[in-house]
Structure formats: C-alpha cells, structure tokens
Amino acid sequence: MIKEILLIEDEKSLYEIIQMNLELEGFKVKVVSDGKEALTYSEKLNHFSLVILDIMLPHVNGLDICREYRKHSQIPILFLSAKGTTTDRIMGLKLGANDYLPKPFDLEELLLRVSVLTGMSNPTIKEAKLNIGSKKVNFKTFEISENDEIIGQLSKREVDLLKLFASKAGEVVSRDLILDEIWGVEQFSTSRTIDNYILNFRKLFEEDVKNPHYFHSIRGVGYKFTP
Fold it and tell me: CB–CB of 137/159 below 8 Å?
C-alpha cells in the first residue's frame, strides 16, 4: 500500500522539490499551501501516514495547525521552519510534533527523517546494528560486542532508547519526547529515569564518563547523541 504524506508548505519552489523527491521515494503527496485550508484536514488525517508542516503559513500558522491536529490524531508530524532556534524547536515538540527540521535543510536528511517517521527503511539502523566507538550494539540480540567478543547485554528499553537516539543523531532530543516515545503513559517515569539510563550508557560506551563523547546532556532541554 502506497503511503500518503500531507505536505503543508506555501513556498512553491520548495514544495515542488519536496513533492517530487518524496514521490520518487514511492510516496503519494498531497500539497496544501494555505493554513486555513490545512485546518480542513483535521478530521481527515487517517488518510495520511505523515504531516510535513511549515510554521510560517498564510492565515493560520503551523503551530496552531499542529495544536488542532493533535486534538484529532496522533499522526507523526514533522515541522519545517526557517525559525530554527532552540526555543522554537521546543515549542513545536511540546505541541506534539515528532520532529523538527530547520530551513535550509539537506534534502537527503529530510528523506531520512521521513523514512523514520513513516516506518520505512531507515539507513541509520537498517542493519540492526549501531556502532558507538569501538563497540557495536546488535538491535536484534540486544548484545554489545567489541572486537567480535560479546561484552554486555542490554534491556529492550535500553535498545529502544538507543534506536531513538540513532534516528536523531546529532540532534537535541527533549526529555518530554523521550518519555512519550519510550515510556508512553507510565506515570512513574521522570526525567531522572532518563538520567539513569544515560549514565549507564556512558559507563558502557564512554572512555571518560565525566567528559562524554557520545552521550551529551543539554541543560534544561534533554540529550544529544553524537555517533
């Protein structure tokens, strides 16, 4: 079944390029260039697999559209915006967006993020393995190996968290997003829970726990994984 993407962007030269490349990747694309018209799709989102949403739109901005969409659906939403500050990204994520890509962006990166959000093949983790320094994580067996020797075992939740970091390598991932994606509705999970997982990752993968190279804490926001 062909997956359809709702692309909400008012810059014609940009949406034409995005539409063409998404269609080359096998997606069907519906383009909407007006914020007011975008709101009419609030109750039709079950027809789509992903929403790509610009923030600065005529008549109704993307933040308000995202807020309205979240009243009706949990469809993945990817923000595209020239407003690329940390504050803007956090605002978008707090409103329920799944990802945020500032303009100008690399087209290949956009396609990668789309593949992740739509459940298509993800080149970052398609081999079911992740390299972190000299160590390798096998997402199928949950094993950590070094020099072809198994040196550790991860839990399913640790693997899920590493997959999330791998899909957003180099980005700041908010604590709220991690809790929503990995822990869901579990009420006992807090940012301290994530801190403990990050600490354990540092013990497993970092040469110097106090000066991490791979797992970074971003004060007041979340974490960043640098492979």
Answer: yes
Same-domain status, 72 and 100: yes
- State the pTM of this model: 0.54
User: pLDDT (tens digit, 9 = 90+) per residue, 114-138?
Assistant: 988 887 544 444 456 889 999 999 8
Query: Among residues 120, 119, 116, 202, which one has the least CA distance to residue 167?
Result: 116
Distance of CA 201 to the CA centre of its chain: 20
Residues 100 and 186 in one domain: no
Question: In this predicted model, what pLDDT tens digit does every residue of 61-102 receive, in sequence order?
Answer: 999 999 999 999 989 999 998 765 667 778 878 888 888 888
Could you give the C-alpha distances from 79 to 47, 51, 117, 150, 158, in angstroms and in order?
19, 8, 12, 40, 27
CATH of the domain at 32: 3.40.50.2300
> Interhelix angle for 62-69 vs 86-94, to 10°?
20
